[in-house]
Amino acid sequence: MNTFKTPFLIIVAISFLVLATNAQNAQQDYLNTHNTARAQVGVANVVWDTVVAAYATNYANARKVDCSLTPSTGGSYGENLANGNNALFTGVAAVNLWVNEKPYYNYTANACIGAQQCKHYTQVVWSNSVKIGCARVLCNNGGYFVGCNYDASAALKSRKITASVRQTRGLGASAACGQLRNKFQKSPSLATAEGEVIEARLRSEDFDNSCIGFAFTYICDVCVGL
């Protein structure tokens, strides 16, 4: 009886390991980890998109040969990539790796601190990124590659990731939207920040109808000081 005890325990341990790692690579695991980070800064949840996920899967499969963190080309999506040496490097572990860059993001300056990397984090919590798709593959070298794509992509130079003029300035939603619209109408040049054009809808006639839902998270640095 005792002869089989140790092998049995090993098999059980391996089974639990497989279950644990599989439980951290599902679609909902990617969503939960992203949305937990986004909730911490007051940003709405992302949702899973099958088209974006297909793009992520296709590119992950292309990286099986080397597990390289070479960015994909030809797509219009934002992208975060990561790799690890063994099966413990799960999808959740990859997202947490990106989220752990949070201390290196300076919200006031809207930039990474010094030479630190923070753009993976800003992509995770970017308010304009509302759809995601992720994939994880076993590479030929035994490592694991994880990639997530985002629609739309982040643009660190032109927009802040969170916080509304309503919250910052103590304005009601209607008042804040009205001030923004008037400011854009009086000075269209304010719609450009560091050479990048803000979403055209902020300057359009549709602004009144749509600003409640998204305007506050699309405001560029130049326009924040209302």
From TrEMBL:
CDD domains, alphabetized: CAP_PR-1 (cd05381)
Key words of the record: Pathogenesis-related protein, Plant defense, Signal
The organism's place on the tree of life at top rank: Eukaryota
Leader peptide range in chain numbering: 1-23
UniProt domain SCP: residue ranges: 25-158
InterPro entries: CAP_dom, CAP_sf, CRISP-related, V5_allergen-like
Biological role stated in the UniProt entry: Probably involved in the defense reaction of plants against pathogens.
PANTHER family the UniProt entry points to: CYSTEINE-RICH SECRETORY PROTEIN-RELATED
Identification of the protein by name: SCP domain-containing protein
Source species of the chain: Arabidopsis thaliana
